[in-house]
Amino acid sequence: MEEILSKKNIVITVSRIYGSGGHTISKMLSEKLSIPYYDKDLIKLASEESGINESLFADADEKAKASFLRKIVKDVYNDDEVLPPSSKDYTSEKNLFNIQANIIKKLADRESCIIIGRCAEYILKDYDNVLSVFIHAPMDYCIETAARVKNLPFKGLEDFIRKDNKRKEDYHLSYTGKTWTDARNYDLCLDSSKLGFDRCVDEIIAYLKVRFKD
Known about the structure:
By secondary structure, this protein is α/β, with parallel strands linked by helices. It contains 10 helices and 5 strands, in the order H-E-H-E-H-H-H-H-E-H-E-H-H-E-H. A 5-stranded parallel β-sheet has the order 2-3-1-4-5, with helices on both faces. Helix 2 packs parallel to helix 10. The longest helix has 23 residues, at 154-176.
């Protein structure tokens, strides 16, 4: 794997159901491959490049549902250019998304890395150096996993997970026009409840070796 990474930038995009362990799997994969992973770091990078406060990027994620309900077709990302700071729409939700998309593309051009969420698999759909992964698991498993980090009763955890997944679903649909959980959006879909985190990492690496062996 090291030889493959030394010859070509390879980007792994990871989308995940809350509680499926997708973030942990990404971190483990990052350590095993010795490549960086980006999650909320993308907001910081986008803020630094644009001069826009990080909180506005975070708020845009939360407002994705409202945006979707208003104008789903109009908001679908199609490689739009970033507006200049002088534009009245510079801090609009769509432009904030485009700024993050540009950061994601720059990372894909520059280095091997792992990118978590942010519709990266769609933004990079035309890149031949990208492997897109979706991590999922049944609700009972996600609740059990989430209980390790969140101090909520069983029903509270279930409600939190459903709400978080709905937000991701709306965000994804709003900017891609595609259903977030549709397996056709990804190269590889893994059920972490059946494989465990270590095996998920192994399966992703095995897929990488086959896909990029040349």
